[in-house]
Amino acid sequence: MEKGGNVRSSLIRLLWHRIEEDDLNGLSAQLAYFFLLSLFPLLIVLFTLLPYIPIPHQDVLGVIKGFAPVEAMDLIEKNVKYIMNHRNGGLLSFGIIGTIWSASNGINAVVRAFNKAYNAKENRSFIVARGVAILLTLGMIFVFLLAIILPVFGREIGVFLFSQVGFSDEFGKIWDTLSYLVSAIILFLIFTGLYWIAPNVKLRCRSAFPGAAFATVGWIVTSMGLRFYVENFSNFSLTYGSIGAIIVLMIWLYLSAFIIVLGGEINAFYSERSKKNC
């Protein structure tokens, strides 16, 4: 019991030290900027793929709407609709390649942040490093599509099965709870992939689990908390006027970046500790 307490206290002390030493506040602000640049290109790629998959557009935004603050969500919906309505060309166009490149900027910034957490130098070539970022971006898109497809078709299958035994109403209540669990599992898979593949360090998949678990719970709790605060205790539009929604979006992206980088620091801590014990 005492040993476990010592590990937790040393983890907290080291994390606090790393937050200051690695300047997590400044690093999170940089990541938030790159996330903002990557957000709309990433959504454009998703919406470009939707004609090939029988999923309504609102289901894509519905996944984000469950966590994003209302003002930020309104801004995202408005701009995505505008971009898609004025966009020409199909999936197999040169423009989509540039869009994927832009969408990978956020992941590329995450790679640099994780390398800093592990004190690892990026000795991969520019092409290889960017290729990893693009592959991770495509992987995120694939997992994101799964996160949309599973609830849509899962609900339809569940309603059909439960209606056969006369419990369709009960299934609706059960599914509302399960949908949050499915979202959490999808997030955990995304974070595990990021923490395992992104750093320029040889890692086992299971070594990414502590940070992935922290990031999953931390991101959900932080997003829900910010959403509750914005809806009930603050009106950014009164303070910032027409750019209030942008401020809310940037705060959400900043907090998300901070949680993700902190998860990387947790994994780096356990990685260093395991090496010392060997």
Automatic annotation (TrEMBL):
Location, primary (coarse class): membrane
Stretches that traverse the bilayer: 31-53, 91-111, 132-154, 174-197, 209-230, 242-266
Protein localization: Cell membrane
Keywords carried by this UniProt record: Cell membrane, Membrane, Transmembrane, Transmembrane helix
Keyword Transmembrane attributed: yes
Topological category with respect to the lipid bilayer: Multi-pass membrane protein
GO cellular component, one term: plasma membrane
NCBIfam families named in the record: yihY_not_rbn
Protein name: YihY/virulence factor BrkB family protein
The species this protein was found in: Bacillus salipaludis
Upper lineage: Bacteria, Bacillati, Bacillota, Bacilli, Bacillales
